[in-house]
Structure formats: structure tokens, C-alpha cells
Design the sequence.
């Protein structure tokens, strides 16, 4: 694992200038979670539009470059998509989105926190329960 | 600053097998000693020797092996007692400091704390010296309040005095902060708390491994420490308390070993400290802790402390030269242990730790099990380096190089 590889321009750019950072005045979904191990924190808010579309999405959070950049990029990806799309997203999509950095097992949790928060919120809105099974909970 | 080390570092380093390994092709620079320490060969050998030649249960059987195991286990207790200036009956072996505070919560707290009582801790406590008191306050209907801090990371004695006016039942305080390195004046705090009628519990997890400890002059009611932070094995530590206090207390866990007589409707308790050691005890690791204490005594705790003070002074001076470095905690080494928590520009501690790991440098990152203190500092996390006997000026130079590399990657 090379840190120069992990912290490529893309991740640093989103960390320093997070897109969709902030809170929504009106929202239908509000989901927050922390990684108890390191204290990384992400909250995502969504306004749902016609046809179950993600009309507006914003996030706030505190934490490392990987967790914050990953959440920011994910909000960009999700915006305009249907809620159903969130169900299809998996960890491979997140890794691809980040440019497939070679993350060690402890840092994978950082990368996947945003996805866990997004899925938990959307599943709840759809009346379902999201069981985190992407390995982001079984690494200590 | 003169680069003179108090200890013969090369000789010390040769005693620790793990320091021979490399990490990502680099020499291991282990700077996470507040978290856990590495083990000298003498400790590893003690474990192997126990299992290879003496293994049996203690305090029960009468054959030769059992006598040897009991002697070794009780010998370790004598060493632990002497290490902090206590008597043998005052040392209860526990899993570590966390089990010690929880033992006090149940065996002392449930019987002595009443509805409306006040419990006092400080803002610089580790979670293990906060959460048990929250649980106790909840179960007994008591209140938990915290002594505040001064901007330099020392205790706000004014807020302590104010809380004493409310006649607290318990004052739970660390001797040394695992984040700030602040060494609290326990002798003074114990005296004031006792005068106000409080029972005093001291978390010695970050002090006992790094400086001479004399329980008589500190005079707390309870003092706890962990073996794995002082070159010993994991899973063993000690709760030290006055014999009369231990005798008054209810048992913690019930089972074998802790009893004198068992009837169907009641039981009577074994003498202290055995009253608090239910079930088969952690024999091997207690013996390992005894070996760690022998190792530390061989160097001398004054020397350990002096060595770490030099490293602290060197680190504070040297790392301050790195652009973006910001440290927390008092600058006076007389009231500070060999712990440096810091942030580096806007680089998150986990990102920094990942870069340093690539250089073979192990530092702790995150909240250090002290989230209330992190909130007080206004940060979500810090990086932390902490020293022990095998650390050198060279380790700090390599850390400095690692910080500069991170600075280049993150364009600090």
C-alpha cells in the first residue's frame, strides 16, 4: 500500500473542497452514523422528489480524508438517481468511485461509512431495514 | 540539545525480540506505548517456562507442580505489591485497569453509593474511568460531575474545590492523562478529597509503567494499573487497596477460590485479596507481569522516567520545527509523562497514521478512548506518540521525517 497512491489528487480535492457539504432546510431522509473505532462521522440528508428521485442531497461530517471524500463523491453520484439505485450500490462501486486505492482493512471502513449512512437512511424511508453486510462492521 | 540518552538503548533494544522485525521494509519504530508496550524476552520466557515446566492450578492441589505454580503466582503478587509500595494482601489481580474500576463500581459502589450522592471524575479521564461511574450513578440514582481543565491541560483546581464543597462520595482521577500526558498531583488531591469525606480511586495505567509509584505517599483508597502497558502480558493488572477497605467490601464475582465455606443458603468469603479472585486466576500472565516488574526494577523506575523526560523534551523541541505541527498538553516536563498528542495541519490523524505506517512508524490515532477530552480540546481526533525504555532520539528523527513526507503528500 502506498500512501501517495491512496491520497491521490481526487481524494484530497474532495476532502479539501467537499461537494454537497451542508444541511437541507427541507428533507425527507436524515441519516447519521459514526465509526465508533475512530470517531468518523457522516450525516446525509435527502429531499425526495417525484418518482422517488433523489432531488437534493447534502452531507456533513468530520473525519479522515477517505471518509469525507467518499461521502462527498457518493452524494454527487446519488443526486438525480432513484432511491432504488441506492439499493444496488455496493462496496465495489465505492472503491471504483475512489479510483480503486489500495486500502488496508482498517481504512476500508472509512471508505464505506458514507454508503452505510446513505443505505440506512434510504432503506428506512422505504420501510425496509438495512443490514450492513459489506464487511464494514466486521473489521476491528 | 545534547543527544545523550540515559539508557544504553542498543542493549535495551536487544532485549525486545519484536524490535528486530521490519514493517513495510522499514525498521519498526514503535511509538504507541500508552496503548500497549512491547515485551522483553524475559517476559516471553517466563510465560513459556511456566507452561513448559510448572503448569497446574493454584491454591488447590497439594502436589509438587501445584506448589510451584502457587509460589510463582503469589511471588508475582509480592512483586506487584512492592512495585507500588503496598503490602501483599492489598493487591488484587484483575484483567486490567478497566476490570479494576468495574470491580470497585460493583463491590464498593453498589453498597456505598446512595440516591442523591455525588461522584466526581475529571475531563481528562479514559472511558474506563468514566463509564463505570455513569453506570453506578444510574443504578444508584447518584450524580456524576467532572473537574474541569485549564487551557494548558492541567486540572482546574478551583472547580475541584467547588465540587468538594458538595461532599462527593467518590473522586475518580487518573494519575497521568493518556492524551495530554498531564501528571496530576495525587498526593494533594487525595488529601483534599479525604478531608471532604470522599473515597479516592486513582487510575495508574499511564503512570505506574513510567515513573516510581509510592502508594503510601499518593494515599488513594484504590489504585489500578495494567500489566500490558508496563512490558507485561495482556489480561493481567492489579487493583491495590487498603486491606481494611477490601475486607469491608462485598465480593465482585462469585465462584471458586473466593469462598471460605459454601452452604446451600449462604457462603462465607475467603481472605483478601482472594475474596476478589473468583475462578481459576490468570496464573501465567501474573507470572509474566512479575517478570516485567523485575525487568523494570533492573533498569530502575527513576531511570525510566528520566529517559522518557529526555525523549519528551527532544520531541517537543524537534517536532515544533515541522510546519503544521500543533501539540496538546502542558509544556513543563515535571508535570508531564512521555506522551505527545498532536494534530498536523488539516490532515486527519488516521490519514497521518497511514502515511507513517508506510515508514514503519506506529503511532496511535483517533480519540484515545477519551471522547469527552477530545470535545474539550475541540478536535475529533489526535495523533499520539508515547515512549518507553526502547525508544530513542533516532525514533523521533524518523517520526519527524515521516511528518515531512505527510506534509508533501497533503501539500501542507
Sequence:
Amino acid at each position: 500500500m502506498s500512501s501517495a497512491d491512496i491520497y491521490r489528487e481526487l481524494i484530497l480535492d474532495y476532502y479539501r473542497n467537499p461537494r454537497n457539504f451542508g444541511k437541507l432546510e427541507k428533507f425527507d431522509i436524515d441519516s447519521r452514523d459514526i465509526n465508533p473505532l475512530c470517531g468518523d462521522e457522516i450525516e446525509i440528508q435527502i429531499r425526495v422528489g417525484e418518482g422517488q428521485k433523489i432531488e437534493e442531497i447534502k452531507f456533513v461530517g468530520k473525519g479522515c480524508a477517505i471518509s469525507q471524500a467518499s461521502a462527498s463523491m457518493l452524494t454527487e453520484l446519488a443526486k438525480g438517481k432513484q432511491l432504488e439505485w441506492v439499493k444496488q450500490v455496493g462496496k465495489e462501486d465505492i472503491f471504483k468511485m475512489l479510483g480503486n486505492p489500495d486500502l488496508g482493512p482498517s481504512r476500508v471502513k472509512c471508505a464505506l461509512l458514507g454508503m452505510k449512512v446513505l443505505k440506512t437512511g434510504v432503506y428506512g424511508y422505504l420501510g425496509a431495514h438495512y443490514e450492513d453486510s459489506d464487511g464494514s462492521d466486521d473489521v476491528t | 540539545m545534547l543527544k545523550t540518552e540515559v539508557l544504553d538503548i542498543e542493549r535495551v533494544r536487544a532485549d525486545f525480540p519484536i524490535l528486530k522485525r521490519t514493517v513495510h521494509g522499514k525498521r519498526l519504530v514503535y511509538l504507541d506505548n500508552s496503548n500497549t508496550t512491547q515485551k522483553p524476552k524475559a517476559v516471553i520466557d517466563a510465560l513459556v517456562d511456566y507452561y513448559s515446566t510448572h503448569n497446574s492450578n493454584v491454591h488447590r492441589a497439594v502436589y509438587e507442580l501445584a506448589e510451584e505454580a502457587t509460589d510463582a503466582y503469589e511471588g508475582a503478587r509480592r512483586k506487584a505489591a512492592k512495585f507500588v509500595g503496598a503490602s501483599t494482601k492489598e493487591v488484587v489481580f484483575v484483567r486490567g485497569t478497566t476490570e479494576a474500576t468495574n470491580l470497585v463500581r460493583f463491590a464498593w459502589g453498589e453498597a456505598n453509593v446512595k440516591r442523591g450522592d455525588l461522584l466526581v471524575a475529571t475531563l481528562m479521564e479514559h472511558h474506563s474511568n468514566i463509564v463505570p461511574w455513569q453506570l453506578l450513578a444510574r443504578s444508584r440514582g447518584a450524580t456524576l460531575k467532572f473537574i474541569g481543565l485549564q487551557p494548558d491541560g492541567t486540572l482546574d483546581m478551583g472547580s475541584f474545590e467547588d465540587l468538594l464543597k458538595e461532599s462527593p462520595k467518590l473522586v475518580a482521577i487518573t494519575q497521568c492523562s493518556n492524551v495530554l500526558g498531564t501528571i496530576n498531583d495525587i498526593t494533594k488531591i487525595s488529601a483534599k478529597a479525604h478531608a471532604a469525606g470522599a473515597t479516592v480511586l486513582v487510575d495508574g495505567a499511564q503512570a505506574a509503567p513510567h515513573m516510581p509509584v509510592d502508594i503510601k505517599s499518593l494515599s488513594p483508597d484504590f489504585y489500578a494499573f495494567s500489566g500490558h502497558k508496563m512490558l507485561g502480558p495482556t489480561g493481567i493488572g492489579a487493583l491495590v487497596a487498603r486491606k481494611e477497605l477490601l475486607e469491608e467490601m462485598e465480593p465482585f464475582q462469585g465462584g471458586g477460590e473466593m469462598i471460605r465455606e459454601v452452604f446451600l443458603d449462604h457462603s462465607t468469603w475467603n481472605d483478601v485479596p482472594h475474596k476478589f479472585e473468583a475462578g481459576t486466576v490468570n496464573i501465567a500472565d501474573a507470572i509474566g507481569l512479575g517478570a516485567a516488574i523485575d525487568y523494570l526494577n533492573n533498569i530502575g523506575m527513576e531511570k525510566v522516567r528520566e529517559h522518557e523526560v529526555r525523549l519528551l523534551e527532544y520531541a517537543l523541541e524537534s517536532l515544533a520545527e515541522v510546519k503544521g505541527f500543533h501539540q496538546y498538553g502542558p509544556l513543563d516536563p515535571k508535570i508531564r509523562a512521555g506522551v505527545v498528542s498532536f494534530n498536523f495541519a488539516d490532515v486527519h490523524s488516521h490519514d497521518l497514521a497511514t502515511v507513517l505506517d508506510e515508514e514503519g512508524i506506529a503511532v496511535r490515532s483517533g480519540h484515545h478512548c477519551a471522547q469527552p477530552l477530545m470535545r474539550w480540546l475541540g478536535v475529533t481526533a489526535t495523533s499520539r506518540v508515547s515512549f518507553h525504555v526502547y525508544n530513542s532520539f533516532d525514533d523521533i528523527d524518523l517520526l519527524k521525517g515521516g511528518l515531512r513526507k505527510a506534509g508533501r503528500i497533503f501539500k501542507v
